[in-house]
Each structure stands twice: as C-alpha cells, then as structure tokens.
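User: If you would, consider this record:
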Amino acid sequence: MTATAFDFTRFTDRNPVTLPLGADKLLEQKIAYLHAMDAAARAESTKVSQFSGNALGWEQEVEIFNSEGLQVADRRHYNRIMAQTIAMEGSEQSVGYEAPGAMMGWEHAALIDPRELALTATRQALVKLGAAPCPSGTLPVIMESGFGGVIFHEACGHLLETTSVAKKASVFHDKMGQLIANPVVNAVDEGLQGNAWGSINVDDEGMAAQHTQLIKDGVLTGFLVDRMGALKTGYARTGSGRRESYRFAPASRMRNTYIEAGNHSLEEMLATVDHGIYAKRMGGGSVQPGTGEFNFNVQEAYLIERGKVTRPLKSATLIGTGPQVLKEISMVGRDLALSAGMCGSVSGSIPASVGQPPLKVDHILVGGNA
C-alpha cells in the first residue's frame, strides 16, 4: 500500500470578517441596535402591538481530510438581523417580517440602518390592515426582486440537485440540453460573491466554490453535483457538496441561487398588465418534491389595474409548478437582489441565498378570498 501525503491546500478567502463573533464589546452594540429597531417600529403607529428584533450570529470551523490526500480548512462567519412586527386594528391582525443576512461578522450591521429595517417590517404589517380581499383565478403576476426567488429555489432548484436527479425523482432528470423555460430566463447557482449569505470558499467535500450555469436562454445547461452525485450520474462536480455539520453526509445543495437580470424596468412590466397582482414580498409555502408543485403565500400584495399598482390585497396565494412557471416568465427586470434564507434537506439546514430581478409571469393560478 502506498501512503498518500496530505496536501495542505489553501483557498482564497472571499469572505473577510472584521468583527467576528468572539470580538469584545459586541453585546452592548447589539442591544443598542435592537433597542433602536424596537423604538422605530413602535413610534410608527399606535396599531403596532408587538415588535420582535433578533441579532443572530455564529461561526463554523470546517476541516476536511480525505483518502486522496486533501486537507483543507475554512472558517465561516454568519450574521443575520431579523425584524418582525405585529399590527392590530380591532380584531384584525397582520405580520411584517424582514431578515437580511450575510457571511460576515457584526460589521454587517453597519450596512443596515436599524430604523429602516424595523420600518420595512412595520409598513408591511400596517399595509395589510384593512387591505382588500385578493381576487382569485389565473392572472398575470409581477413578482418583485429578492425573496421572490424562493419559488425558483424551492420549486426548481431542488429538482436540479443530483440528490434527486440521480434517483430520477426530478422531472428534469432527463432534460439536459432541452428548452425548459422561456428563452428570457437565465439562472445560476454560485458560491463566489464576497460575503453573500450563501457563499462558501470551499464546499464540505473540499472543492473550491464555483459559478454553475443552470439555465441559459431557457435551456437546461447544468445540475448541482456533489461527489456521490458525480459517481451516480457522470456529471462533473460543481463544488455543491454541503452539510449542516459533521453529523450529516454531504449532499448536492444550493448556494446563491437566482435568475439573472434582464432588460426591463418594473414600470415597463406593469404597463403590460391590465388586471393582475403585484407580489412585492413573498412569504413561505409548501412544495411537492419531484414535481415542483407549490403553494406560496404573498406576504405583501397589491392589485394592478390598467398598468398601475393600486390597492393593497390580503390572503394572496400563488399556486403552480416550477416547470410551468419557468415557461410563463415573459419579462425579466434589471434590478437583481438576493435575500437570505435557511434551506433544509437531507444534509441538514444550511444558509442559502435566493434571488431574482422583478419578473412578469403571464399566467399563474392565484388563490384569494374575494
């Protein structure tokens, strides 16, 4: 048997940190920050009944050895600031929520005005008080940038992981090189953006992060592939092997996953809609694995009438399938934004960014109570 010497590989750190979790005097700064959030939310309206602010941070030290002689280490710092407001008027109650995150230390807070963050959540809650019931039926919907990307993440992204592709549990398992979306759609998954919530220097199998084109001009061009997925499918690894901790085996997982920017302004998209829904902020929902069938609530919604955003709506739900929605996207906006989230799968819960520019979906089933 020939011994293999360890190669102590070092990767470039694209996620520098100046105020790690262990830095001195951070507790007082965080308490002051949260007090400022609380004061701003409660001062906005007497209808604010409750405000909750949280500052979450953790460090993860990773060290990987394998039988091929690889040895690599990485230290990951995460910071997330959460604001949730509950507003009440009579017997009616509504909730607003905003939670930006970054692969940074507490210096992340310097990029976010605590008052503006609290007011964003508060205004979401207030606008829904007294909002009109949402109409139902198949309608055009414009989804705003940022967390709107949760639908692509949940209803399409998981179907492009070899975790499901290798088992033929994904509707996309045999669609490589085929047109699966409107040609205006381009989608990627990457771990390279400096200090982005879903970025990594190295995946949990020791491979450097990279940029993976998933969809190009509507054509399926790539899967997310870990080591086991590569062995089972024959596709090259993409630096997508991730896991919550050593308690889980690595699996193919998303990093920063988003639809790329297009050429249209939000105003141009609105002008094409005579009667539809503007989904300014998406909420949570449920997805059927394998098919991508989804049911997502819209946290902040407005009616579009004759090309203009008019009144706020409540109880809006978007229903469809990931493969169907990809084909119904006809316009893609210029202003790409990412939002932080936690993604759960077979290898545990990991930080992942979702994102998109504003999108126009020509036809999607809207559930409402109008």
About this structure: The mean pLDDT is 95. The first strand starts at residue 7 and ends at 9. The helical segments are 26-44, 114-128, 150-155, 162-165, 227-233, 266-271, 322-328.
